[in-house]
């Protein structure tokens, strides 16, 4: 024998019926925090910020050229 029962209710009604906690406020706080972190990461990954980070070890373009040439000459000598 087979019995089928269809219950039409919203997720909130089902959660209340089974006594499960309402985690929607927690989810909203976590989503806001994630949005803030993603926004901060995207700002840090802007082309200008990336170039500043990469070039922070060099004082000027002449130093970059000198280091590049010294690495090239070291590569040929080995």
Structural class computed from helices and strand pairing: mainly alpha
Shape: rod-shaped
The number of distinct helices, counting runs of at least 4 residues, comes to 4
Largest sheet: none
Mean pLDDT: 85
**Rg from Cα:** 29 Å
- Give the CA-CA distance, first to last residue: 83 Å
Number of separate structural domains: 1
Give the DSSP E fraction (strand runs of 2 or more residues). under 5%
Oligomeric organization of the protein chains: single chain
Number of strands: 0
* Helical content band: over 70%
Uncertain regions spanning at least 5 consecutive residues: none
Order of helices and strands: HHHH
Topology:
Elements: H1 11-18, H2 24-44, H3 47-55, H4 61-77
Give a written overview of the molecule.
The protein contains 4 helices and no strands. It has 78 residues and is mostly helical. It has one domain. The longest helix is centred in the middle third of the chain and has 21 residues. The chain is rod-shaped and about 85 Å long. The protein starts with 10 loop residues before the first helix and ends with a helix. The mean pLDDT is 85.
Keywords:
mainly alpha; 4 helices; rod-shaped
Quick synopsis:
This protein has helices at residues 11-18, 24-44, 47-55, 61-77. By secondary structure, it is mainly alpha-helical.
